[in-house]
Amino acid sequence: MRVLRTIVGVVLASLLASGTGWAQAVAGSQISGIVRDTSGGAIPGAEVTVAKTDTGLIRTVFTGSDGSYVLTNLPVGPYQLKVVLQGFNTYVRDGIVLQVSTNPEINVTLSVGAISEQVTVVANSSLVEAHSTGVGQVIDNQRVLEMPLNGRQATELIFLSGLATAAPAGDLNTNKNFPTVTISVAGGQANGITYIMDGGTHNDPFNNLNLPTPFPDALQEFKVETSALPARYGHHAASAVNVITKSGSNRISGDAFEFLRNWRFNARNFFAPQRDSLNRNQFGGTIGAPIVKNKLFFFGGYQGKDEKSNPATTISFVPTAAMLAGDFTAITSPACNGGRQLNLTGGFVGNTIDPSRLSPVALNFLKHVPVSNDPCGRLQYGIPNNNTEQQALSKVDYTFNEHQTMFARYYYAHYNNPATYDGNNVLTLSRTGQDNQAHSVVAGHNFVLSSNTLNSLHVTFNRTLNDRPLPAFFSASDLGSKIFSLVPGYMGISVNGNGFSVGAGATNPGYFNSKTYQIADDLDFVRGPHQLSVGANWIHSNIATLNNRPTNGQFTFNGQGTGLSLADFMLGIVSGGYLQGNPVYDYDHHDYLGVYAQDTWRLRPNVTLNLGLRWEPFNPVQNTFGWVSHFEKSLFDQNIHSQVYPQAPAGLIFPGDDGYPDNGVAKRKVADFAPRVGVAWNPTGDERMSVRASWGVFYDSPQLFFNTRFANNPPWGAQITISNPAGGFADPYLGYPGGNPFPALNNNWQNQAFPAFGVYVNSPLDLNPTTLQQWNLSVQRQMGDWLFAASYLGNHSSHLWRATELNPAVFGPGATTGNTNQRRVLELQNFGQGQFYGTIGQLDDTGCDNYDAMLFQSQHPLQDNLSVLA
Description:
Blueprint: H1 2-16, E1 29-37, E2 47-52, E3 58-62, E4 68-74, E5 77-84, E6 90-98, E7 108-110, E8 118-122, E9 135-139, H2 141-146, E10 164-166, E11 183-185, E12 193-197, E13 200-201, E14 219-226, E15 239-245, E16 253-262, E17 279-292, E18 296-308, E19 313-317, H3 321-324, H4 360-366, E20 378-382, E21 387-399, E22 404-417, E23 434-450, E24 453-468, H5 476-479, E25 492-495, E26 500-502, E27 510-527, E28 530-547, E29 554-557, H6 565-571, E30 577-580, E31 584-604, E32 607-615, E33 622-623, E34 630-631, H7 633-637, E35 652-653, E36 673-681, E37 689-699, E38 720-722, H8 744-747, E39 758-762, E40 771-783, E41 786-805, H9 825-829, H10 831-834, E42 837-863, E43 866-869
């Protein structure tokens, strides 16, 4: 924090030396304009007051020498604007509704007359954006509440912005996090969106997706923005989603609701044999009320969900009674193989196997699997997928006086989707349960230091608790395999092709928790035609995760032993390889810092120039335990070893070795500056048209789970891969150098020899953060109550992170999957040291991407029961 205060002080001093400044905070809105007389001359010194009609909040400024005024960081909602100056009629404008992160311009013309004479205009603010040069769309409260949403998930409304599309989930949205959707905005990465809720960060640091958003009745509105946003925005590069929750007011209001979706009311899908069985019940309510009129307000809401359905039919292929007796003639026949006859390899005549040769370990496993009555081994069963969810939100707003306001908001969400096992069919455990909790607390304080200076402070704390439970069943050692099983009642097995899997991939017990702390401060002030802003944003995040994927061993059967995966399994031929390692504890933390300066300069009454600079030093993710390493080919070539782990093979260095940076995987980069430039032109001067263009540079921050594979690296991860173990299912470490390395590697990995063919991931020490350049040109025109817009957007991404293989196998005569490790380049170069390296996944930052798009929009606010957004 001392460093943060120093940086902010330097930036503030440099700006104060040249003037003062302004810009609206991300959680609110602003009103600006020019006050003129009937001849068009600017009127300085006029008192401009806005009053929030539902809470009584009042803010006052005075027009400058050019007649301009700005009211910054106003909470969203309904307002009245009033302009007063001796010698002129009083001007009053009602019906103004401010939306999140908008900048309406309201110009005022005063007529000569008595101050007691009042001219009242009832009209909303202009729909044209005349200040911000980004491209965005507000999803207002009416659409949040009334648009049909599957499951009442408000994040689905992001797609209404016109620039958003569904993105592949990959490893971002899985059973390790609270369920959400993966979205790409304007060609950006799915985890490149900055989520903000009530001014506080709302990204899940685990994957950089969003934390759960409240149900529609608790949301006021939100805005999706992208393309060269002002310097105030940072942290992630692609876009920003700015969410505002509801607040209480002077009026007692609320609702109670229940939404029921029952299969009995659903028509059958034309292509389905029967109606679906979904039964979803969502219920709850909200209440908002004043505690002290015009001073203290409360809002609270709750929604519960109970969802049940008949499980979908899952199909696996398991041994039949004939196969258990050694007869594989049916399953190898053309009827079971798409018209193709299979013949078992390995000397099995007539596709029969002596039952005495079947693996006792496999037969013990099959005691927990129903025998298929289908000649081809087809087995149909259902895996229950019922779930419940609870959401609760409370918010308190307090007005100290016309200079100070504050709020505090707490949001809680809990999702539970249990896995079940009846003890008869272990294949129902081909998925884990999910028990996800999210806590979010934000406090905000606004302090009007003077009529043209305002400070906004936000403090945020977010926490997730993501448990991945799996009912205990049995381990490979329970079945008779000669391995050590650290976790009771769990194993991993995959029979590829027409087979089955249990405990494979992400189907293992674990937890994936995170915490986020944020302090963000924005100082906005006005001086003449300059509206300047400076601020800083510090976010400390950490994750604590446990993944047991390799802990008890993963057995894979792919049919290369006999030509049939099920036959390989029943014979105990682990043809697809065996993998085992220590539990994957991934405890990482990251400190993000963004400091910015921004100037919105009114060059002429109808031309505004936006200039900004953001400083975002690249701080690599740090491992809490220092469980990171780096492989350097030049050190391998020179046979140089680590001093921290002398038993490590040549080429590896660790925290504490010369040249290794901190506890991260790369060096820090301090000189990362992101300039932003934009211009807004109002060619008609009547608030009803704007032409805007902008360009900017953005840096992205990686998700903390990105480095999880480093937790697999030896010595702490001690992950071992054996391509085709000679001892098969019964004894996979038969013939392995030194014999079974577990549990020694579980308990005393610091002093153990490094395993042969260890699995590594690696990062270049001179790693660059993903960088995005964005530009746009847009035109808006308001015609009556309709707003029409056309925007061109482009961006160029550089330093996209991707993976390459650093230790590939060399193909040649006699090459098989069984001798892959012996053909790797490091072993061929130096057998004595290269034998310790299997695959090395190398992070590469040379990816790039280009995106161009045209966006056409039309919008009509709610009037005469009509609202349009297209």
